[in-house]
Fold this sequence. Notes:
The protein is an alpha/beta fold. It is built from 13 helices and eleven strands. It has helices at residues 3-14, 22-33, 48-59, 74-78, 112-116, 119-124, 159-162, 176-186, 201-212, 218-233, 243-259, 267-278, 295-305; strands at 38-41, 63-67, 79-84, 89-94, 101-105, 126-129, 132-135, 141-146, 167-169, 237-239, 283-284. Strands 2-5-8-1-9 form a five-stranded parallel beta sheet. Strands 3-4 form a two-stranded antiparallel sheet. A two-stranded antiparallel sheet has the order 6-7. Helix 2 (22-33) packs across helix 11 (243-259). The longest helix is centred in the last third of the chain and has 17 residues, at 243-259. The protein is globular. The model has no long low-confidence stretch (mean pLDDT 89).
Amino acid sequence: MNTADICEKIKENITKVIIGKEDVIDKVLICLICGGHVLLEDMPGTGKTTLAKALAASVGGDFKRIQFTPDLLPSELTGMKYFNQKEGEFVFNKGMVFTNILLADEINRATPRTQSSLLECMEEHQVSDHGVTYKLENPFMVIATQNPVETQGTFPLPEAQLDRFFMKLSMGYPTPESEADMLLSHSVSNPLDSLKKVVSADEINSVKEKAACIYTDRDIVSYIINIAAATRNDNDIKLGVSPRGSLALLNASKGHAAIKGREYVVPDDVKAVAGDVLSHRIILKRLTPNMTVSSRDIIGKILSQVPVPVEQG
Length: 313
């Protein structure tokens, strides 16, 4: 079974619970097969937590959910050593990050100290404690949520933390038709309770290896580099995309090609994921009060200006 077929099976399973959000599900699957993490920023009640639970149920991996609060300690996430009197030695007690899919609910409600404890986990898939390194599960994915409208009692994610997220996505409100289907499907029971595993963790790891090997022509690489360079020289941008962001865009483009059933990357793959991969990695200059331009608008403008590579006949 190829990558596209496996992703389609997962997608079909998730759509039993999340209705009318196929594009968002595709992007989350790209994050999964690229070994990346996703930040879901949206209003309460739009299905962020449900999406994470449905994904975990579909891939049959271990799932843990932790509610981020101001009193949450880093050791609750990563783990800590304690003295075992019975054994007469110090033992490492693993934290919540030792799982396949970690739902970090309302991540911006935790203190910067707790937020930063995820940096090593997300980037290197490991935890270091007193000189000892503990590898995390494979696959390992963080799905973090935050509410964009509530600011009281929250701690905005710093740029270094945002850069660890492969994509930043928004569920958005459903269409009236999708909302009606959702209400009818949830009126008797929650379909999430009966969701079954459709693929294994081993299949996901195999798909990750295949996605990493998707062919990328040098012209596509140059196209990605030119997009990143444009963010560093744009008059509206204070801080442009880092090399980590360029690499993320390349890998996301490979992932998009993979779920579409192709073994090579085309410019449309880059365009399809650029806004989700890059918009949270740039910092805009202070604009006049009457301007409402967003980071996604700026990335869209750059995509319209950077020359697209043309296939040589």
